[in-house]
Specification:
The complex is a heterodimer of chains A (389) and B (297).
Chain A lengths: L4 H17 L20 E7 L8 H18 L8 E7 L4 H13 L4 E2 L5 H4 L2 H7 L4 E3 L6 H4 L5 E3 L4 H14 L4 E6 L3 H15 L5 E7 L8 H9 L4 E4 L3 H13 L5 E4 L6 H7 L1 H4 L3 E4 L10 H11 L7 H18 L4 H10 L1 E5 L2 E4 L12 E6 L2 E6 L3
Parallel strand pairs in A: 1-2, 1-3, 4-5, 6-7, 6-8, 8-9, 9-10
Antiparallel strand pairs in A: 10-13, 11-12, 13-14
Helix pairs in contact in A: 2-14, 7-8, 10-11, 14-15
Chain B lengths: L1 H28 L6 H19 L7 H28 L7 H23 L4 E2 L8 E4 L2 E4 H23 L1 H11 L1 H6 L4 H27 L1 E2 L3 H16 L4 H22 L4 H15 L14
Antiparallel strand pairs in B: 1-4, 2-3
The chains are: A alpha/beta (389), B mainly alpha (297).
Chain lengths: 389, 297
């Protein structure tokens, strides 16, 4: 994909010229600013990790986005224009992300539909903002992304605040007395842990036994686990990613911990079960937005994904798919790709069906309903435990 | 308390195994082989591939099978280390030290992302894992598997020490470390000895990789980066180039981390461990057992 941007731009330009030559240049116009581009594809840009520590996530998101693009194009595209997806690598790293965002901007992206690591997405906000490109962020969900109240930034994943609220609700429901919170010191993970702690600190219900930070990408967490177990908690909540989550669940059980374990949405992956091993993973809870597995009527979608890419969809596949559909919807409603109009269209959306439920943005541009629910590992499969409705 | 010591010693024995390769290579050709941690990763993946090829193994046979895989993997990673030296380092042996260092960093990236291209970015999980029941010894909870792994590590380290101090081969290594030019004048085949040094160091890293895969279960293409850094630290603590010192350094680093976590909490662990390292090096720059390096003229 990355080796051929020049040739693809060249061939696109040729197609565009040909199309104009055939006299279709006036189709679907209507907006002064857009008439010049009416026959060019609507370009969606997606920044995702394709290298580095989170490289495994990239394909889940870009494949699903491509699936949405192909489906929409098969139905004739948007406003008579085709969609086109361009991806760039952010390596889950601020500098690479900024470079990738600049690359996408120069490639003429109309709407950004990427963003997985919050820390890498943050520096791209002003870059897309200056180019007047709306951003629909499918996965990154740190509160910092919306704290600046930027007009062009929309989050379609539940926020840390919403996730913490769901976690606290479930702990209380389970009658937990003493909760150990474990995070990996990244902004996303620490955010959830601290927000959960703030909720637990309220009188009544469970109390926070300790907050333990671990170093991600290691194998041995026995020292952290010794610390956790010294406080004798009856509930452990891990808010980081699945690689460490699997190891922590396994090592907690090996150390003789008998209480409940819960993980955050970054840890929801079949790999978690595999890494922890079936015995240790059994009964592990998770706070998670809706996934294809827990959604009724998503079997067809999973099949379509498997047929096209030969693998199962993974974490954030559904959000990436929805981001593309939402971008198409907004561009259609706006009647063109003018940034300000697309933003207005996004703000006006009410009841657009997504995996997470009907969409309506809050004034902050986050989901009005985070849609977090509790999953549980049962017989080695991640299944729905409680929709917290 | 005993739990903390045991945790530290267990992690430390991994650090020590990986650190030995670092230390040996540095001792002989004064090269910081930054790709060394990636040989550990390569070992973990080689073991994974071999286990996959062997197929289903009943859990009662797990330990003997793993030991066999360990030996094969050591050979594979050893050869990979030799190839690495032949391709990336030998042509540059007379080049400035900095070029060699940059090449090592390049080799590290080549191995990491080569493995990603070959095996994918998703973490893999060992089909055969050492779990087992735990037993309580003096207040510390440990498993049989941990004891076996530490046992293997100790045997490998003792074997290495005997090799270096008691054999002709070891004498040749030490001679080259002192002065490569004179050694070759004395009839030592310098290139062959350096190759063998890489073989041994890489084999040890590969062994650690398989052991980590079998014990922790999860392997991924970047797993060697952090442990490479830790091993380097361990080697410096103990005295880089000095074999018993390096072993000691690994154990000390493991203990520092374990106690740092306990005293100050997880987020301060690395601050504590590396703070001690800095303090230590200002007081004793040659490491615990390192000898003062005399400038050669």
């Amino acid at each position: 994909m990355r080796a051929t941007p020049l040739t693809s731009i060249a061939s696109l330009a040729a197609v565009a010229l040909l199309a104009t030559g055939c006299g279709q240049g006036l189709l679907g116009g209507g907006d002064g600013g857009d008439t010049a581009k009416t026959n060019e594809p609507i370009v969606l840009g997606m920044l995702i990790p394709q290298s580095g520590s989170e490289a495994a996530i990239g394909p889940y998101m870009s494949n699903a986005a491509q699936l949405a693009v192909d489906e929409i194009n098969a139905k004739g595209g948007v406003l008579g224009r085709k969609l086109e997806l361009k991806t760039a690598d952010d390596a889950c790293d601020a500098q690479s992300a900024a470079a990738g965002a600049n690359k996408l901007v120069t490639e003429g992206v109309d709407v950004s539909v990427g963003g997985y690591c919050s820390g890498a997405t943050l520096p791209t906000l002003p870059i897309f903002g200056k180019a007047n490109i709306p951003m629909i962020i499918p996965a990154a969900n740190s509160q910092e992304l919306v704290d600046q109240k930027l007009k062009h930034v929309f989050l379609i994943n539940g926020t840390g605040t919403q996730q913490a609220a769901a976690a606290e609700k479930w702990m209380t429901k389970q009658g937990a007395k003493s909760v150990a919170l474990m995070h990996d010191n990244t902004s996303y993970s620490k955010d959830i842990a601290l927000r959960t702690q703030a909720l637990l600190d309220a009188p009544g219900g469970a109390d926070t036994a300790l907050i333990e930070a671990v170093t991600p990408k290691e194998s041995d967490y026995s020292a952290n686990i010794t610390n956790v177990l010294a406080k004798k908690p009856d509930f452990v909540y891990w808010t980081g990613y699945f690689q460490e989550g699997g190891l922590i669940a396994r090592q907690l059980r090996q150390a003789g911990y008998k209480g409940s374990i819960m993980v955050g949405d970054g840890s929801v992956s079949p790999k978690l079960v595999e890494i922890a091993g079936p015995e240790a993973a059994e009964g592990v809870y998770a706070t998670m937005t809706q996934t294809p597995d827990t959604l009724e009527g998503a079997e067809g979608w999973i099949e379509a994904y498997k047929k096209k890419f030969g693998t199962e969809p993974g974490p954030y596949s559904n959000q990436a798919y929805d981001a593309v559909r939402l971008a198409a919807e907004a561009v259609g409603k706006a009647g063109g790709t003018d940034g300000a109009k697309v933003i207005a269209a996004l703000e006006a959306i009410d009841g657009f069906q997504m995996f997470s439920g009907p969409l309506k943005f809050t004034p902050e541009h986050t989901l009005s309903n985070g849609g977090f629910q509790i999953l549980v590992v049962k017989d080695g499969k991640i299944t729905l435990q409680d929709s917290l409705k | 308390m005993t739990q903390l010591i045991w945790n530290g010693l267990f992690v430390g024995s991994f650090y020590a195994l990986v650190a030995l390769g670092y230390s040996m290579v540095y001792g002989i050709i004064k090269l910081l082989n930054f790709a060394h941690g990636d040989l550990y990763m390569l070992g973990a993946f080689a073991g994974f591939a071999i286990l996959g090829a062997v197929g289903g193994v009943s859990s009662s046979m797990a330990l003997p099978v793993l030991l066999a895989v360990l030996v094969v993997t050591m050979a594979v990673t050893g050869l990979a280390g030799v190839a690495l030296e032949r391709i990336a380092y030998r042509p540059l042996r007379r080049a400035p030290r900095l070029s060699l260092l940059i090449t090592a960093v390049g080799a590290s990236f080549a191995l990491e992302y080569g493995m990603r291209a070959a095996a994918g970015a998703d973490p893999r999980v060992y089909p055969l894992r050492l779990g087992g029941s735990s037993l309580e010894v003096a207040g510390a909870r440990l498993t049989l598997a941990q004891l076996v792994l530490v046992g293997v590590a100790v045997v490998l380290m003792i074997g290495l020490n005997l090799l270096v101090t008691r054999t002709r081969e070891g004498r040749a290594m030490r001679a080259i470390a002192l002065d490569p030019t004179t050694s070759s004048l004395m009839g030592i085949d310098v290139n062959a000895v350096i190759s063998r040094t890489f073989f041994i160091g890489s084999a040890l890293a590969g062994a650690a990789g398989v052991m980590a895969g079998a014990y922790y279960g999860k392997i991924d293409f970047l797993m060697g980066f952090l442990i490479g850094l830790k091993a380097f630290t361990a080697a410096v603590i103990g005295g880089i180039g000095n074999i018993p010192g390096t072993m000691l350094g690994g154990l000390v680093l493991g203990l520092l981390e374990s106690f740092g976590t306990f005293w100050l909490g997880g987020e301060w662990r690395d601050v504590f461990a590396f703070g001690v390292l800095i303090l230590f090096l200002t007081v004793r720059p040659t490491g615990l057992l390192g000898e003062r390096v005399t400038e050669r003229v």
